[in-house]
Amino acid sequence: MSERSVKAEALTFELVKDAEIFRSYHFDEGLHAFRPAPRQYAAVLELLVDGQTLLSVARKADLVVGYVIATPADPRERWGNTPIAPLLRDTSVEVSKSYRHGGTARRTLGAMVEAGALEPYIAFATCFSWHWDLSETNGDPWRYREMLYNVFAPYDFVLTPTNEPNLTESPVNMLLVRYGSGVDAEVRETFQALCRDTSRDPY
Predict the structure, then answer these.
(1) Residues 159-179: pLDDT tens digits?
(2) pLDDT tens-place string over residues 14-58
(3) Residue 28 within a domain
(4) Fewer CB under 10 Å: which end of the chain, C or N?
(5) How many domains, in total, are found in the chain?
(6) Count of CB atoms within 10 A of residue 76's CB?
(7) Could you tell me if 58 and 12 are in contact, meaning their C-beta atoms sit under 8 angstroms apart?
């Protein structure tokens, strides 16, 4: 077993249901894909306090080394500019470099899915290549895309066509979507139409 696999085995994977619990944790410095780790921790805490955000973490004691966050759709974007926006959750994952390749991302997502937290929602992941650490794949974005797809696919996220401008900016970008068991057919159809509807884009 590799050193990274051993690290992953030693982690706790959990859905964080209370912001106060999260306050007792801190972020590994390697969680900096979106902003420096302390600022990202503060941003995640602020979102968690609102009661509408879902969060699962991979942690070693009180050190968070990976997380999956599912937030309400941004009203400035296509996904948040629709009557079904309350039923959508924008889902992203980040794992500190030292803890990758041991299934950490997949198991962190699994903690959220297996707890049933996503069942009332359409969860979607807008996978933009400019956020990816391509050192993981020797600079090959298509290999990274496949790796990311393999994190989400076991939990019924499906590759979904869209003409959303940010996603179509690069052929390697992708939209992954999961329909929760509590989502009815009409909402599904509305979302699928939204994926192709340029009239809702604010630019």
Answers:
(1) 999 999 999 999 999 999 999
(2) 999 999 999 999 999 999 988 999 999 999 999 999 899 999 999
(3) yes
(4) C
(5) 1
(6) 10
(7) yes
On whether residue 188 sits in a domain, the answer given is: yes
Distance CA 46, CA 50 (A): 7
| Separation in Å, CA 180 to CA 44, 71, 119, 183 | 23, 15, 4, 6
- Decide if 145 is inside a domain: yes
3-state secondary structure of 32: coil
CA-based nearest residue to 148, from 178, 116, 176: 176
pLDDT in tens, 63-114: 999 999 999 999 999 999 899 999 999 999 999 999 988 899 999 999 999 9
Contacts of 49 (CB under 8 A, 6+ apart): 19
Q: What is the CATH number of the domain that holds 174?
A: 3.40.630.30
More confident: 200 or 144: 144
> CA dist 36 to 28, 31, 39, 161, 201, Å?
10, 7, 6, 32, 30
Q: How far apart are CA 126 and CA 137, in angstroms?
A: 20
**Distance between start and end Cα atoms, the chain:** 50
By residue range, what is the domain housing residue 74? 3-197
Is there a domain that residue 203 lies in? no
